[in-house]
Fold this sequence. Notes:
heterodimer; A: alpha/beta; Rossmann fold; 4-stranded antiparallel beta sheet; 8 helices; B: mainly alpha; ABC transporter involved in vitamin B12 uptake, BtuC; 2 strands; 1% strand; nucleotide-binding (chain A); Sugar ABC transporter ATP-binding protein (chain A); ATP binding (chain A); ABC_carbohydrate_import_ATPase (chain A)
Amino acid sequence: MSATPLLELRGIDKSFGPVQVLRDVAFAAYPGEVTALVGDNGAGKSTLVKCISGIYPTDAGQFVFDGRPVNIHSPRDAAALGIEVVYQDLALCDNLDIVQNMFLGREKRSGIILDEPTMEQMAAETLAGLSVRTVKSLRQQVSSLSGGQRQTVAIAKAVLWNSKLVILDEPTAALGVAQTAQVLELVRRLADNGLAVVLISHNMNDVFAVSDRIAALYLGQMVAQVKTTDITHAQVVELITAGRSGGLGLTGEPATNGNGAAPAGSTTGGVS
Amino acid sequence: MSTTAVKQEGPAAVTSTPSVGSHVRGYWRRVRGGDIGALPAVLGLLVLCTVFAIMRPSFLSAGNFANLFTQGAAVTLIAMGLVFVLLLGEIDLSAGFASGVCAAVLANVVTVLGYPWYVAVAAAVLTGVVIGTILGLLVAKIGIPSFVVTLAGFLAFQGVVLLLMEEGRNISVRDSVLVAIANRNLPPLLGWTLAAVAVAGYAAVQLLRYRNRAARGLVTDPMVVVLARIGGLAVILGLAVYVLNLERSRNVLISSLKGVPIVVPIIAVLLVVWTFVLHRTSYGRHIYAVGGNKEAARRAGINVDRIRISVFVICSTMAAIGGIVAASRANSVDPNTGGSNVLLYAVGAAVIGGTSLFGGKGRVLDAVLGGAVVAVIDNGMGLMGYSSGVKYVVTGVVLLLAASVDALSRRRAAASGSR
């Protein structure tokens, strides 16, 4: 679809003490597209997301957002750019209702009084814009919602803020079949509304169902970033487990293990 | 504001004005689902009052009704502060003796040092703020469990009261303003005026909200329900003021005794103020959020430590106000002010009223309802001539009952919710 990525990462390195978790990672997310980020446990998916959302500082590498080089030092920087993350463990408060959760920490006020009508209206508009019909009342507590509905609220919360890039961390991991379909449909709709969506998932069916591109991490290295139509199911599994598949992925000897030495021709990226 | 375009259906898709019937059914469904709120406290209050009224008709006299308020005031005020701490799932065991320390400061400043009453009140409240800040910092910044911090406070403040009392002497409080707080009444006309203002204010808030929401096409409670709420408040306040304005003196020729006790409007104002803070400000919203899911609150950019410190400050400050009322009622402060059963009655009041010990659920009104239950038990059993031994046992059992109701309704909520 669009040629220029919304977010582009180049040469990202990240170590925790002696353990190098990300090595010279390049990654791009395009507006209007769902980019699936796949990889086995410990491949560095979560770390990469936390670098993008400003929770971890990177050791080296460049961020380019909307064509401009940017620095992301804190979650607030990321939010200011329009990057929102929907975490696996949802981060919703059970004892608050849907509207209260969607505006948590960013409540609309008139004077010191909470402006409930405005918030409720905006929440209703956002949910309607995402064609969410499964929620009966905006004032019901989140504890009374099903897993799929909760995920919907978490996603709606992320798109409420003029966000441009939404990162979803395993949004379907705990859901049943019907609810998974519901959430995937919502993910697709986000992209169709023009947002750049990054979907982290272990489920190949989900990945092939909604994604436009697939980015595969293997032991901290980005081994491939290809269009979903150009790759098969089996190839992706090979990329995840072995780091290469046919002409794709690592060339030469695969890295021996996660905390090996830095690869040859180390990165020359700027300071993040 | 949102990036997503509004479709034709708009908000109407998720909103519809419910009828009275569906409103009642919705409430009943919430109750069955484990969200029982203050229902046990209200039912308990009705049952207790009926039983005591049958066993001892004097329980229903105007004089005894007024006594209930002054007897329960200090515990209720402390419980109102405790609600904030309980909302975070924390506990403040030192609130009772914190109120004792503040009362001792009050007595020392006004009687020993001879300053005017307002200086003494300011000093007592300031003492409460300082105590709360210290407790909150220890809990939030150092990370000691609140149970341990406040248990240490419980012991230490007991000692501080003794030290302030110069090894056990008691200090009398004779300042006329301070004594009036718990011992004098409003003129009957002022009582009626305040009740009218309260009802009018409540009606204005309710109707404005109704109009505001209806104008934007949002779901509103049915008008009948809104009017019933306003009418209910008017009836309750009217009855209470009427009874309290009856002559309570045994011999009118010697002295007249009628009117709303001055502590009642004090409690009412604090109830309104704290309810406003909890439900209409983002600070209150953040308290609920931290109590419900600390991690979610942190990720939403809420300063969790600041919220945790602030609830301890509120709790100890309310304890200070409770201490002032207790000192006023006893006309003196002794080393046991705020001691013995005060703290447990206050925790009991909050929990009986429907505030959860697990955090995230509760209202300031709970403290007032629960405080009423505790005061009724204390007062009614006293009238029936039971010893304090029996009173303690019964109050303990009621507290246990309330805590089990809390735990069971939580289980029920977990079962009916789809987690």
